[in-house]
From TrEMBL:
Gene Ontology BP terms: cell differentiation; gamete generation; negative regulation of canonical Wnt signaling pathway; positive regulation of proteasomal ubiquitin-dependent protein catabolic process; regulation of microtubule cytoskeleton organization; signal transduction
Compositionally biased tracts (Low complexity): 390-410
Region (Disordered) location: 1-27, 377-420
GO molecular function: ATP binding; protein serine/threonine kinase activity
Ranges annotated as biased composition (Pro residues): 411-420
Protein name: Glycogen synthase kinase-3 beta
Lineage: Eukaryota, Metazoa, Ecdysozoa, Arthropoda, Hexapoda
Length: 420
């Protein structure tokens, strides 16, 4: 199934033309080559459409790809660092990424602060600019640092980061949104505070039961088997598979299923999970049930990972990396798993002594997803001195917000400080 639209867009309803803000609203004033101030008329990411002037400076390129270019800049009024993602806007389509990001507001999802349109060098060329909160690192870069240093990724940080990934997935999945590109590169980090935020919703889509979706989606190493089988009616459980691959990668120090191609990706999966049964294949894509696959036995999970890998980590991975999509646990069930129990201990802090970032600030909407899990999700209140133990409490009692980073390098978490 081909998808001719740009990566971050979707078909516009009907033949209506998108109403862009007038391009002459973009004002640029240059004070000096080193201190270029750009002033634009931008719309806030959330709330009513009330365009306002926003000025930023110190612009520099920090990333690029088929989607466009990402800049780092500093807002003039607040001094806050932001990332500006600039993508070419096709007038035939409405931007799906913008639509989705305007709906999202969660502590583990990168925040859309503003958006604005700008003109390009060619006639009628229009760019959409997403002004996002800036995060200094990614799980990919930090994990790469440990791998190059021949060190294991610390288990505590694996728990801290993967837990926050599942919180972000629980939030978007209840909205019907599938990210479709979960990978270490799209997991932003602040190593000082321990906060993780999911980014890059350029492949994301609101999935509707009965409506087909493109199967050639998601980066190969993290692609769920039903996508490799060509399924077009998949669910948000493809994100759960991808998250399981990220968790396994942090524990292994290398990708779990490093396939060289789509077919080889399936071979890598079969090497570990064994040949899927006819029923499992039917659950992934009914059109493939008559295909013959070589019969390979599954490899014991305990032999896939290092000897000292925590058994509860292996148990969690086994529940995430299931052939049958409906058999994979939900993001919220993953959050409640024993692997993350250390995070629910009120005495747990970051290795630098700072408190954990907010991990249990669940909204009523989040707690309503699977109410039977709430007693497991929320840490129990510590017993008052000399009083009765408050066991079974379901009140959020998470640690205070993360403290500002210490100026003493010895207080920084051991996460590749030289890369910051």
């Amino acid at each position: 199934m081909s998808d001719q639209r740009p990566r971050t867009t979707s078909f516009a309803e009907g033949n209506k033309n998108t109403n862009y803000p007038p391009l002459e609203d973009m004002k640029i004033s240059t004070f000096s080559p080193r201190n270029k101030v750009t002033t634009v008329v931008a719309t806030p990411g959330q709330g009513p459409d009330r365009p306002q002037e926003v000025s930023y400076t110190n612009t520099r390129v920090i990333g690029n790809g088929s989607f466009g270019i990402v800049y780092q800049a500093k807002l003039l009024d607040s001094g806050e660092l932001v990332a500006i993602k600039k993508v070419l806007q096709d007038k035939r389509f409405k931007n799906r990424e913008l639509q989705i990001m305007r709906r999202l507001e969660h502590s583990n999802i990168v925040k859309l602060k503003y958006f604005f349109y700008s003109s390009g060098d060619k006639k009628d060329e229009v760019f959409l600019n997403l002004v996002l909160e800036f995060m200094p690192e990614t799980v990919y870069k930090v994990a790469k640092h440990y791998s190059k240093s021949k060190q294991n990724f610390p288990c505590f940080y694996t728990k801290l980061y993967i837990y926050q990934l599942f919180r972000s997935l629980a939030y978007i999945h209840v909205l019907g949104i599938c990210h479709r590109d979960i990978k270490p590169q799209n997991l932003l980090l602040n190593p000082e505070t321990g906060v993780l935020k999911l980014c890059d919703f350029g492949s994301a889509k609101h999935l509707v039961r009965g409506e087909p979706n493109v199967s050639y989606i998601c980066s190969r190493y993290y692609r769920a088997p039903e996508l490799i089988f060509g399924a077009i009616d998949y669910t948000t459980k493809i994100d759960v598979w991808s998250a399981g691959c990220v968790l396994a990668e942090l524990l292994l120090g290398q990708p779990m299923f490093p396939g060289d191609s789509g077919v080889d990706q399936l071979v890598e999966i079969i090497k570990v999970l064994g040949t899927p049964t006819r029923e499992q294949i039917r659950e992934m894509n009914p059109n493939y049930t008559e295909f013959k696959f070589p019969q390979i036995k599954s490899h014991p999970w305990s032999k896939v990972f290092r000897i000292r890998t925590p058994p509860d980590a292996i148990d969690l991975i086994a529940r995430l990396l299931e052939y049958t999509p409906s058999s994979r646990i939900s993001p919220l069930q993953a959050c409640a798993h024993d692997f993350f129990e250390e995070l629910r201990n009120p005495a747990t802090t970051l290795p630098n002594g700072n408190p954990l970032p907010p991990l249990f600030n669940f909204t009523e909407q989040e707690l309503a997803i699977q109410p039977n899990l709430n007693a497991l999700l929320l840490p129990k209140r510590p017993a008052p001195p000399g009083g009765e133990e408050a066991a079974g409490s379901t009140q959020p009692t998470g640690p205070p917000a993360a403290a500002t980073s210490s100026s003493d390098p010895a207080e920084s978490p051991p996460l590749a400080p030289e890369m910051i």
